[in-house]
């Protein structure tokens, strides 16, 4: 991995103009320019999903002229990733709590379930006729992304197989900013 051009020790996190900087050096520059300090926060946190499985997250906080971005990225490759955005002069402790709360809500509902048939075959299917996830770069095929659902990466072929039982149905596809919450309508919540 490339090292930060400023400190020469941490991994590059962001391209800032011509510079390639780690998060600490970038935040220090932003703190000086914006007059806001990045308050300390834990480096990581461990949370359980809707099935009770444990997930370990690396936490990051980025100062930006538009506000403060906090992220929780699962340490497992292709896992969960949550983000919140707060006011530049807001309560950073409260922003941290919002991030943890968003991650807990985001992992509470599981969207994919494995089913095994009496003949020994298995398949994946959608629970509650809905799915939410995140689009990610696919290292095996740069032209087609993967979809991360329930903290696992799925190829589009796998998603397509899950959708085959819905042949003839209509589809509603909605993109949601990573800092926003995926919300279902009241009718969908009752299902």
UniProtKB/TrEMBL annotation:
Domain DUF7685: 3-37
Record-linked InterPro entries: DUF7685, DUF7686, DUF7713
DUF7686 domain: residues covered: 39-108
Span of domain DUF7713: 115-180
Top-rank lineage group of the source organism: Bacteria
Protein name as catalogued: Uncharacterized protein
